[in-house]
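#structure-requests
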Amino acid sequence: MKKVAIGCDPNAAGLKNIIMDHLAELGHECEDFGSEDTVYANVAIEVAEAVAAGKYDRGILVCGTGIGVCLAANKVPGAYAALCSDAYSTERSIKSNNVNIMTIGSQVTGSELAKTLVTIWMAAEYTPGGRSEPKIQRIYEYAKQQHT
């Protein structure tokens, strides 16, 4: 079981609720950071800060395309977000890139695909020491330089 922070803009509330129900079915604990704020960056930053602080294992953010919340979340030190729209890149976002936040576009991703992507993402785990390790470490080093 993982602890998941989730949030969205008002237009994505329907898909967010479907994802929350699906997370519960998968046995994960989910905290809703809301969907009322029309400035999606606010909820994205709030979720990203909570995940980066270690209060949650992972975060899920939803807006119309998933791009805006992805951009906002990636501005938070320690938050690593990826836009997930297909099974392969969703799995690799964890296995190769060790992201801790997935973003989804409610206007471009149907509910069944979203549930499939969430299932894949929640089951995936990063294994340190693989081929991607030097690449990931370079990203972490650069981020650390920028925020010290």
